Amino acid sequence: MSVEQMSQAEKNDGHKSCPIDYNRRVFKPVKNGGRSAETVFFYRQEGPVVYASYNGGDILHGTLVGIVNADGSLQFRYHHINQRFQLRSGTCTSTFQMLRDGRLRLYEKWNWLDEDRAEGESILEEVKHTSLSPYVSKAYV
Predict the structure, then answer these.
(1) Is the Cα dihedral 46, 111, 54, 61 positive or negative?
(2) Among 14, 22, 64, residue whose Cα is nearest residue 47
(3) What is the pTM assigned to this prediction?
(4) Could you tell me if residue 129 is left (phi over 0), alpha (psi between -120 and 50 degrees) or otherwise beta?
(5) Which of 39, 61, 66, 94 would bridge with 56, disulfide CB 3.0–4.6 Å?
(6) Res. 1: pLDDT tops 60
(7) pLDDT tens for each residue of 39-49
(8) What residues form DSSP beta bridges with 106?
(9) C-beta pairs of 114-122 under 8 Å, 24+ apart in sequence
(10) How does 38-51 read in b/e, with b if 16+ C-beta sit within 10 Å?
């Protein structure tokens, strides 16, 4: 099913639109939970589908793909390759908080699906593109 078909199916089922638009938002960790503070997440959204790329710190390249629920929470799968050339993958659920200045804060509960099966929590906060100008490609913004 295409993104357009999913969006139309939601309308037909009476599913409410997501209260948050994650498209083109950029996040960095404020509570690491196993991630480097230098990791930057570049989010995109098409209808109920959210996806992102991320890198920085120990992460050479990572991606995530998931669903935006009707309440704005996220469910997704992620995978990346780190500086030691290890492939890692896991699952995550995130809830959001709107900050006073209009930025988003994400509260994540994650678990690895590989050998260690560790679980944890992280907090990400949206950063403005101008504060990341060396990291944000012209194609992204």
Answers:
(1) negative
(2) 22
(3) 0.80
(4) alpha
(5) 39
(6) no
(7) 999 999 999 99
(8) 96, 124
(9) 114/87, 114/88, 114/89, 114/90, 118/34, 120/33, 120/34, 121/31, 121/33, 122/29, 122/31, 122/32, 122/33, 122/34, 122/35
(10) ebbbbbebebbbbe
